[in-house]
Amino acid sequence: MQYAIVTGASRGLGEAIAKQLILKNVNVISVSRSENEELKSLAEEHGVHYSHVSCDLSKTEEIEKGLNHITEEVFHDKTHYVYLVNNAGVIEPIDTVGQLETEAVEKHMQVNVTAPILMVNRCIREANARDISMGIINITSGAAEKAVHGWSTYSSSKAAINRFTETLALEQKDKKHLILAYSPGVIDTDMQNEIRSSSKDAFADVDKFKQLKEEGSLRSPDEVAGVLMDLLLEPRKVENGKVYKLYDLVNG
């Protein structure tokens, strides 16, 4: 049996990835605060197992509780492969250093860095103990590689995920796991709405992102998820620990 654990699957890219995995007959475990009824219906329609784990990834105790449920459901004798897609993430706070609020920074780092690390840590332990292969996909951003005015927390958290992915691949090099980070570019999701609602003082490039929306230059979640699926279909071509950028995959 194959399972996929997808965080932030209630909407946006996470929802699109979960849908495409279901269509490939992969059993899906959705991890988010609210459940997506469309995923449940799609799984029933295609005879695929689906379950939802309600979890606020900004709270460590909820992550641990959710992982207890997930590992019991996913890691057993009939399982031969498990995908873990760490997709959940937040962009807030968008503001310049000196104006950041402590609670917002703590929540940001918890969701974007601590949660995916804890998810991988527990799942790798369970998989290695049972000799189950994994495909670990950490969703990152081009902001990880450059300074962006107003995005000090977001750029930092995604840079941390890139280095974590690289280190994980190094440590697991003797195992049969697929490990990568995926940079999806600019997608037409709710996160983009948050970005466009920023003030110019907080985010100097806000007009650029408004223009992308006006010009119809944002890719759909389904298109971006499809590119990732194509990459996962050729695991032998994947360099473990690498950041794969959508633009390179599409244009290269």
TrEMBL record:
Belongs to the short-chain dehydrogenases/reductases (SDR) family. This is Short-chain dehydrogenase. GO terms for biological process: tetrahydrobiopterin biosynthetic process. Gene3D superfamilies: NAD(P)-binding Rossmann-like Domain. Its main location: cytoplasm. Pfam families: adh_short. It comes from the Bacteria. InterPro entries: Biopterin_syn/organic_redct (IPR051721), NAD(P)-bd_dom_sf (IPR036291), Sc_DH/Rdtase_CS (IPR020904), SDR_fam (IPR002347). It is found in: Cytoplasm. One of its GO terms (molecular function) is sepiapterin reductase (NADP+) activity. It comes from Halobacillus litoralis. GO terms for cellular component: cytoplasm. Keywords: Cytoplasm, NADP, Oxidoreductase. The keyword Zinc does not apply.
